[in-house]
Amino acid sequence: MTEFSLELNEDHVQIQKWVHDFAENVMRPAAHEWDEREETPWPIIEEAAKIGLYSFDFVANAFGDPTGLMMVLVNEELSWGDAGIALAIFGSSLAVAGIFSNGTPEQHAEWIPQCFGTPDDIKLAAFGVSEPDAGSDVSSLKTRAVYDEAKDEWVLNGTKTWITNGGLANTHVIVASVEPGLGSRGHASFVIPEGTPGISQGQKFKKMGIRASHTAEVVLEDCRVPGRCLLGGKEKLDERLARAREGKRTSSQAAMATFEASRPAVGAQAVGIARAAYEYALDYAKERKQFKRAIIENQAIAFKLADMKVRTDAARLLCWRAAWMAAHRKKFEAGEGSQSKLFAGETAVWVTEQAIQILGGYGYIREYPVERWHRDAKIYTIFEGTSEIQRLVIARAISGLHIE
Ligand SMILES: Cc1cc2nc3c(=O)[nH]c(=O)nc-3n(C[C@H](O)[C@H](O)[C@H](O)COP(=O)(O)OP(=O)(O)OC[C@H]3O[C@@H](n4cnc5c(N)ncnc54)[C@H](O)[C@@H]3O)c2cc1C
Predict the structure, then answer these.
(1) Cβ(253)–Cβ(185) under 8 Å?
(2) What percent of the chain has pLDDT over 90?
(3) Which of 62, 178, 205, 322 is the most buried (most CB within 10 A)?
(4) What value does the mean pLDDT of the chain take?
(5) Do the beta carbons of residue 159 and residue 167 sit within 8 Å?
(6) Which segments within 42-182 are labelled E, that is strand?
(7) CATH number of residue 285's parent domain
(8) Probe ligand 1: pick from 87, 94, 383, max atoms within 8 Å of CB?
(9) Residue nearest to atom 24 of ligand 1 (CA)
């Protein structure tokens, strides 16, 4: 076990600089264009694949960092470059996390590399849980998966919504109900491999922010996949369902802990946006003169910047703590994963709003990046668990009570 340390090792510093250079030189100059186009930035993903940043090996190494810090460092730098493009690059990792947390080692080896493809043949992946009537309340999923024993196939029907890379992806990981009476304990995850009939894209959403990231409905109509696409396998599912029917604790509840463990990386993305806005506003406040002096010489502006810095650094520390705890399999006794995502998301919204105020009219127009950062920041209080749901997780953890 590595001691918790705020001193980054050589690998961290090197990778952080490498990702930062990509963010600064490739992502930043392209950010405005892809925000306006609201399309997947293929040329940037291709660049990322060419240098190995969009690849199975890179994600596997970052996940495998024993300190846990590599993923949060990389996520912060990419989102500092541009959060929408960052999600276009890292959206496939959501599906990877789904396969990794539910699949067998054989399934990891078969499906995870297919989420990325190769630089000459790039693939994308998507992870679909949310539905029109099941967002925060995941237990009410309507998508059904029914087993056709004669053919050893699963048949999926339903509609997923707001899916990052949905329909565009080559591989989809879909969470469906196999026994609706058991709520979330009757769920299972399925890989829908490339070229499977019966899966299609519904409407593509136009969004407030992270507009370079594709978000769409995914429709499943008698979508048949072989038995081996059930993550974890049939035997394990049958055992789990039997335990759930008897009212015993199941691994699906334990899987919630895995989900909690991915939150520091999402929080780090929000930290990246907050840092971008803080740095930009600081430079601007030193340059911009009104009443014959730099606006930063007014305490009202300087104190705003002081608070922006403090909150951004505090958010980063919460993400680092939770990432370190997750890597060391330390139990989140007080919802530390949720704490990091909650605080970082709300910090990004607050810091980017302050940055707009500091830039005045220039903060409000599209020629400057600050209004985009504010639009991008807002998603971090909504997806991967809303701020209210994070508070619920923390409140339950600290009270030991089932707070509603
Ligand atoms: C851009 C984008 C990308 C996304 N990507 C994906 C993806 O790749 N895969 C995927 O599966 N999903 C994805 N989502 C879906 C996202 O995770 C959901 O939007 C989110 O979980 C919230 O669900 P909801 O929108 O249905 O809101 P609801 O659950 O309807 O919540 C509405 C409001 O009620 C509050 N609320 C609900 N229940 C409670 C409660 N018990 N206590 C207090 N307040 C409560 C919520 O906090 C929120 O403020 C994405 C969404 C967006 C917008």
Answers:
(1) yes
(2) 92
(3) 322
(4) 95
(5) no
(6) 117-118, 121-122, 125-128, 144-148, 153-164, 171-177
(7) 1.20.140.10
(8) 383
(9) 135
28, amino acid identity: R
pLDDT at 254: 46
pLDDT at residue 276, as a whole number: 99
- Do 362 and 237 reside in the same domain of the chain? no
Residue whose structure tokens are 């909650």:
342
pTM > 0.85: yes
Position 247 confidence tier, pLDDT thresholds 50, 70, 90: confident
| Matching residue, tokens 């639009």 | 375
Which helix (H) or strand (E) element contains residue 9? none
Q: Which of 177, 212, 246 is the last residue of a domain?
A: 246
- 243: part of which helix (H) or strand (E)? helix 234-245
Domain of residue 72, residue span? 10-121
Residue with tokens 């039997």: 242
Task: Flag whether pLDDT at 88 surpasses 90.
Answer: yes
Ligand 1 pocket, 215 CB below 6 A? yes
Judge contact between 65 and 74, C-beta under 8 A.
no
Residue whose tokens read 């460092």:
73
Q: Do 376 and 83 touch, CB atoms closer than 8 A?
A: yes
Q: What's the pLDDT at 257?
A: 54
